[in-house]
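Archive record:
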Amino acid sequence: MIGYVTVGTNDLERGAKFYDAVCGELGVGRMMDFDSFIAWGVPGGGAGIGLTKPFDGQPATVGNGVMVALEAKDKDQVQRLYDIALANGGTCEGPPGPRGDEGFYAAYFRDLDGNKLNAFIMG
């Protein structure tokens, strides 16, 4: 089971504002906050997300084919997460809508460092 995922950033303060807004919509706040790493989630809850400056001191880069999926509670929340992401400097990778079979509904976006995320529901 995944405990948390971490994405890299080259500007922790700027990136934190993006994730504060997105994670706030998901009902979670910061659970760890250090000079080079911030994590959002609930200890003992579902998987959290972390934002970090790379440990090796090199610039953060985006993994080709890497994506973090954020589970929403309904289609309206998928829309709100997408809107929040774009309003906070994120870029569109695919607006909200059905994907593949009718049971999967998602919106795709990138954070300020180019990390790809989606908000989705199944069922």
User: Anything to note?
Assistant: The longest strand covers residues 91-98. The beta strands are 4-8, 30-33, 37-40, 48-52, 68-71, 91-98, 104-110, 116-122. The chain has a mean pLDDT of 95.
